[in-house]
Write a structure and sequence with these properties.
globular, alpha/beta, binds phosphoenolpyruvate, eight-stranded parallel barrel, binds manganese (II) ion
Length: 277
């Protein structure tokens, strides 16, 4: 395929469902009452991992008040080290669903295997993590159900590979896919990932699917998260996904990149101003 500029006919042939020409006006994806896509700015926020009822509910109240439309919380955490906290599992899903009901906010959590699907009954949106972007059996299983899927970009995935993963889900019959750039691997080691902001306009031109940005995993350090978030919105992202914790120093995972609730509130305000929404 010609890359620069991309060849529309080739895109249509390789990605008949995901390519922009399948829906030139862009897709609007519903998550509960929330709409993600053109003309919107969706903020997803919450802890990296659900740790306890108190931690989750404190965070949920704060991010909802700050304007988050969707609450996130990891329950089955793929961790680099097998000795790290891997999430509360089923109990975490129960707490997250309960927080969603209590605060009237849809919830998203990462699913790591198709067998877990029945446990995600009370969860509104299913996240595919970067490490699973090319887990094709999982993508197909998520394509055979109707819940919206948040498909994160793999650590070293090209735009075409990411699009092909979306196509796997769409092809099975589920049109509800939202993409999320979260930083890629590069030669520099000063940040956890390298935020590829070009992914926003490029994926929006290649596909009709909404594109969110997760500045938390890209930066890896809370001090830099808000600047990357603002830049992503300026680049035209359809929304942000941000990790927030009331006591980052005590977090069981990714505390060093978690924003305090008040820092998230400031980012939310800045993001709305930048997007004009
Ligand atoms: C996450 O969102 O908590 C997560 C694990 O992200 P990623 O898959 O992008 O590393
Ligand atoms: Mn995390």
């Amino acid at each position: 395929m010609n890359r620069y500029p991309y060849d529309e006919k080739a895109l249509e042939k390789e990605y008949p469902l995901a390519a922009r020409c399948a829906r030139p006006e862009g897709s609007i994806i519903a998550v509960g009452d929330v709409r993600i896509g053109p003309g919107t700015l969706t903020l997803i926020a919450g802890p990296c991992a659900v740790e306890s009822r108190e931690q989750l509910f404190t965070t949920a109240a704060a991010v909802k008040a700050a304007g988050a439309a969707i609450l996130r919380g990891g329950t089955y955490k793929p961790r680099t080290s097998p000795y790290a906290f891997a999430g509360l599992g089923e109990e975490g899903l129960r707490l997250l669903a309960e927080a969603g009901r209590e605060f009237h906010i849809p919830v998203v959590s990462e699913i790591t295997s198709a067998e877990l699907l029945p446990l995600f009954d009370g969860i509104d949106m299913l996240q595919v993590g970067a490490r699973n972007m090319q887990n094709y059996a999982l993508l197909q299983a998520l394509g055979r159900q109707k819940k919206p899927v948040l498909l994160k970009r793999g650590l070293a995935a090209t735009y075409e590979e990411w699009m092909a993963s979306a196509e796997y889900i769409l092809r099975e019959g589920n049109p509800n896919v939202v993409l999320c750039e979260r930083g890629i691997r590069s030669y520099q080691s000063g940040t956890r990932g390298t935020l590829d902001l070009a992914a926003v306009p490029v994926m929006q031109s290649l596909t009709h699917l909404p594109v969110l940005v997760d500045p938390s995993h890209a930066a890896g350090v809370s001090e830099w998260v808000s600047a990357l978030g603002r830049a992503a919105v300026a680049a035209g992202a359809d929304g942000l996904m941000v990790e927030v914790h009331p006591e980052p120093g005590r977090a069981l995972s990714d505390g060093q990149q978690a924003l305090l609730p008040e820092e998230f509130a400031q980012l939310a305000e800045d993001a709305r101003r930048i997007a004009g929404r």
